[in-house]
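pasting for the record
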Amino acid sequence: MRIIPLISVVALAALLATASSAQMISPPMPVNPRALGTRVSVTIQITTPIPANTATDAQMLLIENARKRLYQSTAAECAILSEVYKSECRLVSVNANSSIQMRGGTVGDVVNATGSAVYELLAR
């Protein structure tokens, strides 16, 4: 009866020895201070009136043009940030949403496009 518990203890010890030898310890990598950038988030909103009795295809074109303006604005923003902060700028992400808002009354319907962009600024 003692053989089975002894075998179990030996097997457990072998298992633990194997698991501990599989662990890998690596020294911390030196951090390049230039790699630690500053992130800037910018939100842009564009509103375009829709003329009365505009066909659906023309409305879709207005939405497309509003999104294009958002993308152009987010691209141009990097140059502005780079100049103001005297740093290199990189566009990290862009999120764009567009919809038609039924306002009614004297205002009428509008295309509403909202975009947010995240930039990373790195020291020169």
